[in-house]
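Exam revision sheet. Question 4 asks you to relate a sequence to its structure. Input first:
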Amino acid sequence: MYTDRMQMRGLAVAVVLAGVGALCGLCAPATVAAQSDAEDALRLRNEITTAIGEARCRNLVNCRIVGLGARPCGGPEEYVAYSIWDTDRQHIANLVFEYNLLREDMMFDSDAVGTCEQLQEPGIDCIHDRCVIVPAAN
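Answer key, structure tokens:
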């Protein structure tokens, strides 16, 4: 009987500790969430780069441009070129959508401020069989 009571007490302590541990997970500091978001953003950015690959093209008609990230006053943080000739357009669109939402949330959560300058969308070209960004004409 003593052994049964000790086992029950041990089980009760384990349940309480598990509950406290779960609650502490909910009370994690904002810095942990921000670090997790930053890691997710980096992972997504790397997935986008991998999905784009070499951005091979035969001519300009194979090339597209997409804005990545979010700036405090609107617009993307950067533009990247990709090819529709040798990539899965929908997969890239899904990754970009997820990345942009995450970057927007991160900016909102950090109360980011900026100079409110928006990047001008650059041009795109097929040079040496690769889709590349070219500076926007002023």
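Marking note for examiners. The first strand starts at residue 63 and ends at 68.
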